[in-house]
UniProtKB/TrEMBL annotation:
Residues 231-444 form the Peptidase M1 membrane alanine aminopeptidase domain. One of its GO terms (biological process) is proteolysis. It is an enzyme of class 3 (hydrolase). InterPro entries: Aminopeptidase_N-like_N, Aminopeptidase_N-like_N_sf, PepN_Ig-like_sf, Peptidase_M1, Peptidase_M1_dom, Peptidase_M1_pepN, Peptidase_M1_pepN_C, Peptidase_M1_pepN_C_sf. The gene is pepN. Residues 449-558 form the Peptidase M1 alanyl aminopeptidase Ig-like fold domain. It comes from Hahella chejuensis (strain KCTC 2396). GO terms for molecular function: alanyl aminopeptidase activity; metallopeptidase activity; zinc ion binding. This is Aminopeptidase N. Residues 109-191 form the Aminopeptidase N-like N-terminal domain.
Length: 886
């Protein structure tokens, strides 16, 4: 909480640290009213400092300093300077031991950074700058130290005491006991972790490729012991995959995971002691949906992969965050693609990128993958740093092709092992092994905004030449009016009249492309703002399949007509583009409806869209997970993102019409498909069964949204007979979004009664209502926040009600009278006093105010101004609100 305006930190001001901390010895004494932390820091001057200043400035926030000793001598208060955020010492020896004793209050810590309580345990979260809430320290990732940690606590309340590395000693006296941990790998303090609690665990082991045995444990509260096996299996699969695909082996003798229920993010890769939001690790088929299973597998893998991409090689400063996050997201995406359907994984990731990241990149918080300034680093754990960052690594992978990319990653891991480095260092390795020059490519790290590719084509029957004319541009973003052209790999295929891929021969002297003549997909390399590519030997006018597998994070404009799109939906050999053609078709139909309504005109829904849906439903051979994606109607968020000005009512009305029309024309087909899939789907957890359930529940949802009365009975029955949460929750969601309000109410009540003891299931119950156009009117949302199972101290609950309402409930959040906006503002202010990170994330929907039509836009802006005027606003919220109003 700050009265003065927060300071902006710039990448260009980076300086190497003046001091290094070789060793950090920590001692924690945990009590019911607080914790005493004694820290011994072995410090010396940094011989490589940029311009050595003999001033040691240690970071510290909300700490009570009890004692400070220099080489064993207690310092008097006039020998150091203390303010709200720093402890300053001058005229220091070249090398010394500083002992710092602080008293902290984990019980009162509601921001969930540093040491805090979750249920009956103590736990920590130090990334990005939480360690400074534990003790005074050089809280920056380029200061890497070895750590030993001794934890002492009451034995009966906290039988389990964990930290990073290996346990090396333990003992007890009276009702207290202690355990000492030693982490042999140097690490920045953001990777420090501690857990103390009355936990139980499941255990397994893994033998690494060099034959070392690693003990694996997942620690949970006793009631969750039956929810660990999926995460454990996922962990072992991740360990194998990283050995096989990246040659990376685990390096400690034990690997621990702890599930905690109060956590700001998904999970955290602390060295040897990953801490997870319980929703991202705990699962069993009775309580968790298939999507939860897949998400958990991906997050367990993500955190595990960080052991190399993040921990062994870490970030020099927080501007480099995507060095570890973009790369690790890319690694976990490839892992998931290898475990399940590659095309479906790609579809999911791109759908997220295009709805959420594109919106971020077009809004007031738009920033490059490597930001060049921030006020509060917590605000930069974004879709841009994570998802776009991953796309950038994916493009490098495309440009190098797998073998060279692996050479590059091997070089990166070996050259920088144990160091804190930059995205430039990463790219340099890729340049070195490939001989390619990535000077232009690196603009992907420094320029913000989503590039636009505008493609037109020309076919010359006489010469059998087919030409693609490509233009690129990038809209202005905050602080960046002008952009330089990007290097963009554009994957192209050409379909002949029968839907087959034509072999591609690129005319010499017309730009570069990966692959060889005769290949069916080529990545043409767009480098200029305008460029043409000519294919020869094209014997008939082709249908182009552009940006296959979404080869670059760009908006693509090509004037497809609807016949071409239905053709691609049926025939494109690229699964991603088959789905995307359906999306493009749907979006163009929606836009026609929306534009007509805005002009007060009436148009019919293009029969070709309904026909295309029918074709998908008639497909008996396709992969079910894929077909489930193909029948999905584009969400409001995607339509809003693609609109120039968002007219909420027009979008919602168009959606309503499309759903009703699908109901009217396709109900019978949806019903028979549903029955057929229901008979096949069962309760197994393999990808095929998951695909069947996904498709089945998608059909049920379409029936419900189309208003089909039959959907109600089917959903009730499915809910009663369900053997998996996927089926149970799928049915509940269909009822909540279906035509029968009473049936929905009673299903919600039954579900509550059955599951009220399970927090994670209840979070789903909260969010299905908060998202619902029918059940999520403001008074219902208010009732949910007053529910006995709701808690403003638990981020998952706040996200599932308030976050879902603001982010997904377009009808009621954007109520024309502004009541939804006002409600969100009140919650943001309330949360800002408790947990600024959560408050800041809840702000996102309001930051989009400029895109809304004038009336709503003004109402949203007013709420932002109210927040801005709130005294004592956190740095987190201040940054987002002030940038949004600028
Ligand atoms: N580093 C974590 C991850 O991506 C995310 C995280 C950031 C968690 C900050 C907590 C706090 O795996
Ligand atoms: Zn990560």
């Amino acid at each position: 909480m700050k009265e003065s305006q927060p300071r902006t930190i710039y990448l260009k001001d980076y300086r190497k640290p003046d001091f290094l901390i070789d060793a950090t010895d920590l001692n924690f004494q945990l009590y019911e009213d607080g914790a005493r932390v004694t820290s011994q820091l072995h410090i010396r001057r940094n011989p490589d400092a940029d311009a050595f200043r003999d001033v040691l400035e240690l970071d510290g926030v909300e700490l009570q300093l009890e004692r400070l000793l220099l080489d064993g001598r207690t310092l008097n208060p006039d020998e150091y300077q203390l303010d709200d955020e720093t402890l300053r010492l001058e005229r220091l020896p070249k090398q010394f031991v500083l002992t710092v004793v602080t008293w902290i209050k984990p019980q009162e810590n509601t921001c969930l950074e540093g040491l805090y309580r979750s249920s009956s345990m103590f736990c920590t979260q130090c990334e990005a700058e939480g360690f400074r809430r534990i003790t005074y320290y050089l809280d920056r990732p380029d200061v890497m130290s070895s750590f030993t940690t001794t934890i002492e606590a009451e034995k009966s309340r906290y039988p389990v005491l964990l930290s990073n590395g290996n346990p090396v000693a333990s003992g007890e006296s009276g009702d207290r006991h202690w355990v000492k941990w030693e982490d042999p790998f140097k690490k920045p303090c953001y990777l420090f972790a501690l857990v103390a609690g009355d936990l139980e665990w499941v255990e397994d082991s893994f033998t690494t490729m060099s034959g070392r045995e690693v003990q694996l444990r997942i620690y949970v509260e006793p009631q969750d012991l039956n929810k660990c096996s999926h995460a454990m299996d996922s962990l072992k699969r991740s360990m194998t995959w990283d050995e096989e695909v990246y040659g990376r082996e685990y390096d400690l003798d034990i690997f621990n995971i702890v599930a905690v229920s109060d956590f700001n993010m998904g999970a955290m890769e602390n060295k040897g002691l990953n801490i997870f939001n319980s929703s991202c690790v705990l699962a069993n088929p009775e309580t968790s949906t298939d999507s939860a299973f897949q998400r958990i597998e991906a997050i367990v893998a993500h955190e595990y992969f960080h052991n190399w991409s993040g921990n062994r090689v870490t970030c020099r400063d927080w501007f480099q965050l995507s060095l570890k996050e973009g790369f690790t997201v890319f690694r976990d995406a490839e892992f998931s693609a290898d475990m399940h359907s590659r095309a479906v994984k790609r579809i999911e990731d791109v759908a997220l990128l295009r709805t959420m990241q594109f919106a971020e990149d077009a809004g007031p918080m738009s920033h490059p993958v490597r930001p060049d300034s921030y006020m509060e680093i917590s605000n930069f754990y974004t879709l841009t740093v994570y998802e776009k960052g991953s796309e950038v690594v994916r493009m490098l992978h495309t440009l190098l092709e797998p073998e060279k990319f692996r050479e590059g990653s091997d070089l990166y891991f070996s050259r920088f092992d144990g160091q804190a480095v930059t995205t430039d260092d990463f790219v340099a390795c890729m340049e070195e092994v490939s001989g390619q020059d990535f000077t232009q490519f690196k603009r992907w790290y420094s320029q913000s905004g989503t590039p636009v590719l505008t493609v037109t084509d020309h076919y010359d029957a006489e010469t059998s030449e087919y030409r693609l004319d490509v233009k690129q541009s990038c809209p202005p973003t905050p602080g960046q009016q002008e952009k330089q052209p990007f290097q963009i790999p554009l994957a192209v295929g050409l379909l002949d009249g029968s839907g087959k891929d034509m072999p591609l021969t690129l005319k010499a002297g017309q730009g570069d492309a990966s692959g060889a003549d005769g290949d069916l997909t080529r990545n043409i390399l767009v480098r200029e703002s305008e460029q043409s590519f000519v294919f020869t030997g094209v014997t008939e006018k082709p249908t182009p399949s552009l940006l296959r597998s979404f080869s670059a994070p760009v908006r693509l404009n090509y004037p497809y007509d609807r016949n071409q799109l239905t053709f691609l939906m049926s025939f494109d050999s690229d699964g991603f583009n088959r789905w995307d053609a359906g999306q493009k078709l749907a979006v163009s139909v929606f836009n026609e409806l929306i534009n007509a309504e805005l002009k007060g005109e009436q148009v019919d829904i293009d029969e070709r869209y309904i026909d295309a849906m029918r074709q998908v439903l008639l497909d008996d051979k396709g992969d079910h997970a894929m077909l489930a994606k193909m029948v999905q109607v584009p969400g409001v968020s995607l339509l809003a993102e693609q609109a120039e000005v968002v007219h909420v009512d027009a979008i919602l009305n168009a959606r309503q019409r499309v759903h009703e029309r699908i109901g009217a024309s396709l109900s019978e087909l949806l019903l028979s498909k549903y029955r057929q899939l229901h008979a096949q789907s069962g309760n197994a957890l393999d990808s095929v069964s998951m695909g069947l359930r996904a498709y089945k529940n998608a059909c049920l949802m379409l029936l419900a949204q189309g208003g089909a009365q039959e959907s109600v009975a089917l959903a009730k029955l499915q809910m009663q007979q369900a053997q998996t949460m996927t089926d149970e929750f799928g049915a509940l969601a269909a009822l909540v979004n279906g035509p029968d309000i009473e049936a929905a109410q009673s299903a919600l009540a039954d579900f509550l009664c059955k599951w009220k003891k399970d927090q994670l299931v209840m979070e789903q119950w909260f969010s299905v209502q908060a998202a619902s156009e029918r059940h999520g009117a403001l008074d219902s949302i208010q009732a949910l926040t007053a529910h006995e199972l709701f808690s403003e101290r638990n981020p998952n609950k706040v996200r599932s009600v308030i976050g879902t309402f603001g982010g997904q409930n377009w009808r009621h959040f954007h109520a024309a009278d502004g009541s939804g906006y006002r409600f969100l503002r009140e919650w943001i202010i309330k949360m800002d006093g408790l947990n600024p990170q959560i408050a800041s994330r809840l702000l996102t929907p309001l930051t989009r105010w400029r895109k809304l039509e004038p009336q709503r836009s003004a109402l949203m802006q007013k709420e932002l101004q109210e927040i801005m005027a709130h005294p004592g606003l956190s740095r987190d919220a201040y940054e987002v609100v002030s940038k949004s109003l600028k």
